[in-house]
Amino acid sequence: LGGYDKIYRIKFEADYLGKLAYDGAKKLYGDPLSEEVKEHIDFELHVMKTMGFPGYFLIVQDFINAARNQLGVWVGPGRGSAAGSVVAYCLGITKIDPLKYDLLFERFLNPDRVNLPDIDTDFDDDGRGKVLRWVMEKYGAENCAHIITYSSMAMKNSIADVARVEKLPLERANALKKAIPDRLPDAPDGKPRKLNLKNALECVPELREAEASADPRERNTIKYARMLEGTIRGTGIHACGFIISRNPISDHVPVSTADDPDFPSLKCAVTQYDGHVIESTGLIKMDFLGLKTLSELKEACKVVKQTTGIEVDLDNIPIDDELTYKLYQDGRTIGTFQFESPGMQKHLKELHPTVFEDLIAMNALYRPGPMDYIPEFIRRKNDPSRISYDIPCMEKYLKDTYGITVYQEQVMLLSRQLAGFTRGQSDALRKAMGKKKKAIVDQMKPLFISGGEKNGYDAKILEKIWADWEKFAAYAFNKSHSTCYAWVGYQTAYLKANYPAEYMAAVLSNNMGDIKTITFFLEECHRMGVKVLPPDVNESLYKFAVNKNGDIRFGMGAVKGVGKAAVDTIVENRQEHPYSSIFDLAKRVDYKNINKKAFESIALAGGFDSFAGTHRAQYFYAEADGIPFLEKAIRFGNKYQESKNSAQMSLFGGIDEAEIPEPVIPKCESWDYIEQLRREKE
What's the whole-model pTM score? Predict the structure, then answer.
């Protein structure tokens, strides 16, 4: 299409986008499609074509479908306002039906607000890098780039850096930094002072003394720190921003290289303009985000399949699962997404949620500002007699939130219903109220009142509704985002309620590098009545797993000093039959992949406790020769394997095991309980 006029290119893209959208709609909504669905799809396609964005949606659906169907990467159900698009839902970009939950397309795109589309996509942590590699291979590595970020010299950093160069004693440099308060006194005119070195010199005597000091090192520290403050100190890579262009990025912006954040051994292209500038160059930013929760869901489903043989389809779990709502009602949400904070647990116990809409609302309300409305929301849920509507027809959009305006979309829908606002006007109102743009809000109020009066509503009631909106709409949340993330939260709660051991094993596996977090979740397992057994070379895998009794077995990969290669050789060589003793283990593992440190760590953590006739102290007990028993066992294993390999090369190929005697297991006192725990913790 390179030689075609832009109009023809967009027409072709729009036609193809329309075909994909209608094909998807027939699968999701049934064939024939209802007039409502067709009307939404046609309107959205028209807006996309008019604004010149069909190609953008084709690319996004392309890499999302590749992630799901080719790469085995878990993709989130959507996030942000894109979930309001029926076309995005039909294309597989999002997984939430916007018609079911009254999500609005114009909150995402509308011709009255010419913005570039912004579809943020969540991938599981491990899969994000795979998707970016796929994108670079498909669209050309020269046409793709990460976005640079710049870190600047903050006030205290600039003092520290200059002091180091000036060779000012460290204690003096630290004293200058400590003299700077977290907040400066207000200026004489009552306005707050910006926290910078210039203003700090006016307020902090210690800094003024340093500026006038007889010591040139101190004077220069302040002098040059003032010059350097705010300048660029270093560069990085944007956590999620990524550029895909139709031709080489270097045709549009200067490009540098950096270590690839997902594949450290590789280099990646990075724009030298940051995110604030990049869109003004004509390039569109796409956000590829890694979401840890998706990795946990993926791992949990894998563990469920391993232990029960059941394949859980999280896109189609029942939305009215009794066990899941019981978990929310009891506030047992530790380890779930979006609902695990102590405050949220308290509110969930009081609310007693019974439908998914309750969870969407709580996800939107539990934020600074709207949080003040939670007690009234709970009272109305538990006592329907408190629910009232200023105008009866408002029940259509406020029923799910018990008469309280919780979402931006409700303000938009009601302004259209009551006062005949257009889609664009309703979105402009939402934006003005959300950003507290009083001039625009005041300008739109007469339109709302007059429009409502034309529809037969009392001006006083309309004034009250407007006043309520002004008060709350600044805090109202985007329902599209709240719905998507409430759904991810529900998926985690469903797994925790129905497959508690498997889900907690996945949560523990995804926090293996953080012992404090592991300890926290071990306590939650104890509260749930799920046993977590210590590591065992005959049962543990690299990650946490669930055994045939339904108990969680500690993952050997979570033991400090034990790498994946060591665990893999232990697991691989026990496939035929379990290890009967430390000597049996030593004879069978591959010493290219496991070392003495790994053996010691496993022993201290209790990984050999299932071997009869030995206890942990024996492995570290050294007799007269000064060699600990565990080291003797490792030497025995090495010698056995060397003899075996030599025998295979010989004419007769036999090995006399009597020639390589097993070391004698020493007799010694076992450690007392406290000593055993101390070493285990280590």
Answer: 0.88
